[in-house]
């Protein structure tokens, strides 16, 4: 069964600290993986995309990594800000054929406190 | 329109009544997803449409839930005989076909069953 598991479920950190969110998937065949940020009361928005051949990609203070062999991804947030408080969702795209179905994780709820 | 549009944005209904939620995807997006998100919880997959293929209904929680979509146009999610546990935000997302589809979300419909 194609699944995406995220950990931790929730995380509280102090402003300025770093944190790392984890995503494990069993989706096969794998096409790509995206991290989404969902602010309270809004729909999720894509932060970054990782394809099979990419190991790491940065977007400002966000750095995503991908190990396609172990089927793990992480999202590292550096020097956290209050505005980083949100739910972070890992989404894996099923490859093959023409239908790239997306499988969503349940997300990690990050709270950044002053 | 420029983005995914959902209506209504808020809906309060009495227990036992039927409700219909609407999603207008981005033009040209062949894939459409419905998700449910209870307060403080992650996204719960409900149903997936891809073009004219048979929908994946594996996430619908009971036979009170149904959804329709004609071709690549508007989708409606219908909940019959609503229960209090149906109270949640219902999110719709659409994406193009292709190797690296990005899901674009609507703002959601907040359903409250009283």
Write up what this structure looks like.
- The complex is a heterodimer of chains A (114) and B (114).
- By secondary structure, chain A is mainly beta.
- Chain A has strands at 4-7, 10-14, 19-25, 30-38, 45-51, 56-59, 62-67, 72-77, 86-94, 102-104, 108-113.
- Chain B is mostly beta strands and 114 residues long.
- In chain B, strands 2, 4, 5, 8, 9 and 10 form a six-stranded mixed sheet that branches. A four-stranded antiparallel sheet of chain B has the order 1-3-7-6, with no helix packed on it.
- In chain B, a hairpin with an 8-residue loop joins β8 (88-95) and β9 (104-105).
- Chain B starts with a strand and ends with a strand.
- Chains A and B meet through β4, β5, β9 and β10 of A and β4, β5 and β8 of B.
Oligomer: heterodimer
Low-confidence stretches of chain B: none
The rough form of chain B would be described as globular
The Rg value of chain A, from CA coordinates, equals 14 Å
Number of helices of chain A: 0
Structural class assignment of chain A = mainly beta
Radius of gyration of chain B: 13 Å
What average pLDDT do the residues of chain B reach? 91
Helix content of chain A: under 10%
Number of helices of chain B: 0
